[in-house]
Structure formats: structure tokens, C-alpha cells
Amino acid sequence: MQIDYLHHLPDEHKSSAVRLYRNALKDKLVPILGNDDRAQNVLETNLDTAQCIAAIRDRKLVGILAIQSSKGSFLNPTLMTLVKSYGILGGLFRMGGLALLHHPTPADELYVDGVAVLDGLRGEGIGSGLFALLEKIAMKKGIRKISLEVIDTNPRARALYERLGFTETKRRALWPFSLVFKFPFESAIQMVKKID
Asked: Longest Cα pair distance anywhere in the chain, in angstroms?
């Protein structure tokens, strides 16, 4: 199985990337954006194709790793876009929810905003391949730290990150905001990997 890893998302894969990303991060995104065409449109029209790593097999997107750096992030929904799609109050509410998930990223760090692999291909090494390219990119840029968050209800992802050398640095509870947004998890575990 030949997989090409690219440090950008080809334009023809925007829609499938957002669908794949939304599905993988549904526990975080659905409580904030919902699970309809508005969410797809908001994310698709506000993404930076240079802030990710894409895994392509037979001209089909099979995996994506979204990156946030000091220069920006893969998904950048604006208040204007949210208000246009959800109305004034709905847009403000959703912007507040997205702010809860935001991670301030200093210049010496890359933050993994999310990782998604097609359901039928999980466990095939695609996630590891995405992270391998991320580490090469970090080393080339002189970045020595990669960080991410994993929700407490996703032990499979956490196990992968630990195998890749990430260690837990702290736990972040989302209470009382979890009552407002009805997140199906209680905390996010922050993990870091130092790059030598």
C-alpha cells in the first residue's frame, strides 16, 4: 500500500479533509458546531491548506494531521463566518466554544490540532507516518517541542501518542463549560514530545 505524505492539503481534498476531521473530532466539534451542512461549510471555507500533513493513497485522502503554529492553524473559523452561518447569538456562542479548544502556540512549538485516519485503515501505520513527517518538519524549522491534547475517552489515541514518545504534562477539566456545550468527555490530557 503506497501512501504519499504531503506537507499541504491539495485543494481537491478540502471537502473530504473536513469530513474526515469532523468525524474524528466529533466529541469536540459537534457540541459546538453541530453536525450539519453549516458546520461543514464553516470549516471548509476557513481552512489553511498549508497547516497540515495529508496522507494520500490512490488519489484519495486517507489521513490528515492538522497543525497549529505561531503562524496560524489548519482551521480558522472567523466570527463573521460563524455569525453568517448561525446568526449573531449562535455565532458568538460557537466562537466561545471554539476558544475553549484553542491552544496558544509559541514560536518554538508545533501543536497537533487533530489527527484523523479513515476508519477502515486505522492501525495500518498511517497515523505514525503523519507524525514522522511532522517531526521532520519540526527539526527542519528548529522546533524542539510538539504538543497535543487527547480527550479522556480516547484511550486508543493516547496509547498511540505514548508509543510515539509523548508524555502527559497535565489534565485540563472543561467544567463548567462542559455543562453548557455538553461535551461527552470530562477532561483533555495535554501531552508533549521533545524533539532532539
From this structure: 48
Gap between the Cα atoms of 184 and 189, Å rounded: 15
Q: Provide the pLDDT for residue 179.
A: 65
- 96, 64 contact by CB (below 8 A): no
**Helical residues (DSSP H) of the chain, grouped into ranges:** 14-24, 26-33, 37-44, 79-101, 126-140, 155-163, 177-181
Which triple of cell numbers denotes residue 141? 524549522
The span from the CA of 194 to the CA of 196, in Å, is 6
Q: How many beta carbons lie within 10 A of that of residue 134, not counting itself?
A: 24
- Residue 94 CA to its chain's centroid (Å): 17
Number of domains making up the chain? 1
pLDDT at position 183: 76
In this structure, are strands 60-69 and 72-73 parallel, antiparallel, or unpaired?
A: antiparallel
Question: Which range marks the domain in which residue 162 is found?
Answer: 4-194
pLDDT digits (tens, 9 = 90+) for 151-182: 888 888 899 899 999 999 998 887 777 667 77
Q: pTM of whole model > 0.70?
A: yes
Q: Distances from the Cα of 61 to the Cαs of 67, 76, 136, in angstroms?
A: 17, 21, 21
Q: What are residue 55's phi and psi, to 5 degrees?
A: -110, 120
Instruction: Return the bridge partners of 64, or none.
Output: 54, 116
Contact between 23 and 116 under an 8 Å Cβ cutoff? The reply is: yes
CATH code, domain with 117:
3.40.630.30
